[in-house]
Amino acid sequence: MNRPDRPLQAVNLPNEWHPGSWRSRPALQMPTYPDADALAEVQDELRALPPLVTSWEILALKQQLAEAQEGRRFLLQGGDCAENFGECSSDIISNRLKVLLQMSLVLVHGMKLPVVRVGRFAGQYAKPRSADTEVRDGIELPSYRGDIVNGPAFTAEARIPDPRRMVKAHARSAMTMNFVRSLIDGGFADLHHPEYWGLGWVKQSPLAGEYQKMVAGIGDAVRFMETLAGAQVHNLNRVDFYTSHEALLLPYEEAQTRQVPRQWGWFNLSTHFPWVGMRTAALDGAHTEYFRGIRNPIAVKVGPSVTPDQLLRLIDVLNPDDEPGRLGLIHRMGASQVATKLPALLDAVKRDGRRVLWICDAMHGNTESTSNGYKTRRFDNIRSEIEQSFDIHAAAGTRLGGVHLELTGEDVTECIGGARDLTEVDLGRAYRSAVDPRLNYEQALETAMLIVRKHAQLNPPVVA
Predict the structure, then answer these.
(1) Structure confidence by residue, pLDDT tens digits, 413-427
(2) How far apart (Å, rounded) are the C-alpha atoms in residues 414 and 438?
(3) Residue 188 CA to chain centroid, in angstroms?
(4) For 166-190, b where at least 16 C-beta lie within 10 A, e where not — what string?
(5) d(CA 66, CA 328)
(6) How far apart are CA 397 and CA 350, in angstroms?
(7) Fewest CB atoms within 10 Å of the CB: 74, 281, 372, 387?
(8) Distance CA 214, CA 204 (A)
(9) Taking phi first (over 0 means left), then psi (-120 to 50 degrees means alpha), and beta for anything else, what does residue 146 get?
């Protein structure tokens, strides 16, 4: 990961802010730890551990996101709905990386733009819940809030919030990051050999021919450039790759927030690109207070209930100096509401001249339950929301600069539809998510291809 080519504009330190100032605000979605002293001890331990990312990586990403705001890059943000400790394995991590690399290859080839690659991993261990407790067979227990908080087993012991899990989450995140860095630095993402990224589906999928054609095209282009240059193009051996997670568990985030030598301000060094969810983005809330003070690029989930005035006031708090690359707005309206809810927000932000990166999350607004009890998402609705979002931005004179997707590199059956036309009956075959349904590797790649087609439709090539 390289340092930024040019400095970002200077901004002011936020007034009366420190990493723990969020404690004076209402804190939603927080677990209740039974032992305050044990929690404090864990936070002290976390403060002494090495950081997971560096400040220069964070600033490099902020620079790339600033370029995405200007239409010179496109953001691909994707990964698991919620990581769990048991899946911190080499196969799962490498498959997750493969599918994101495959998607970015399709986007680069089709959109003719550099892609900013951000994974939803190495820290995505906390999940918001709609209720504090869960009832089964007349027994009420605390809700499962992700492996960083408690265990998924429906027992009183497993559901007690345990602060020691934060240390384990830090360790698992470090293992994941170290393995990803090793793969990237070792040439795993080498554009000279994109065929190495293949997963088992390539031979059987209806999309195989189209993907293989793209791979061949990339290989031919690389060889052509190197023939002209008379030498190997070495910067194609690796790519920049960044991490993100929902910064939900504020005691964990606070303990990872640090000052660094030769930089002003505070950085959350647990991830490059934290975001705040729709449930916790209240203007006077603890999460907004925490986010306003860190120098990382940040994002906010924006749902159909958000009004233009609410959004503008939130932007005032989170990016008062209109810093390039600072703020992403991840709209997640649902296919049935995006056409009625999104335009007013785009118009308000454009009218006030706010500098943001618009990102489409076509997953979270399209969740439903099937007749056989599975939580799922229909691929047709995911596709519809993405395509509608491109059209709505084009009509508003704004720019859709990225997508945010829950996906996996595994052969799961959690979302209905796609190239293989999965049905409700298929869900039981390989439904593995403990929280939300994810696109499988084939559906994820199909999503990248539909983004390319929609972009080409809105940006036809200029004929001389």
Answers:
(1) 999 999 889 999 999
(2) 6
(3) 21
(4) bbebbebbbebbebbeebbeeebbb
(5) 10
(6) 8
(7) 372
(8) 17
(9) left
